[in-house]
Amino acid sequence: MTILETPRLLLRVFEETDLDAFAAIEADPEVMRYFTSGPRSREHAGRGVTWFRELQVKYGYSLWAVVHKADNHFIGFSGLVPQHIDGNLEVEIGYKLAKAYWNQGLATEAARAVRIWAFQNLDVPHLISIIDLANVASQRVAEKTGMRYVRNVEYDGKACRIYMVPRQDASLSEFTNGALC
Fold first, then answer.
1. In what helix (H) or strand (E) does residue 153 lie, and over which residues does it extend?
2. Percent of the chain scored above 70 by pLDDT?
3. Are 55 and 63 contacting, i.e. CB atoms less than 8 angstroms apart?
């Protein structure tokens, strides 16, 4: 089921057939260098796909599969995930792409689409992203998505930065006829 479409991407609910491509991304040491788990097994990736599908049913949102329209390849995920930060339930914009698709503006394109969808469909005062202190590329994506650094937190056993975009700062003018331009 397609959730969003941008000029270059489709974001849709994960399918079981995404597992091989997702497992390859999760196993890449460079992609996973800022995650405390490091590279992950195919079994772990399979649990992730199951969890993403469960989130979609429970919340109506999830981390969604990202498909590159030009070559019809699954290239990673972007979407929303509930997070508990300092005892508060937050909604995080997350994104992770295969290394071959880095430095093309695709993570930013996906994250912007997710931001717009979230503010149109969820009653939340803001959205966050939780980013490793050393992950400068991901921090740039958050900033290009309209987020601003707010504070540091410990998350999953490591120091991270919280980026946030309040609803009142979000520009929804980019959204036209169900597709992001």
1. strand 148-155
2. 93
3. yes
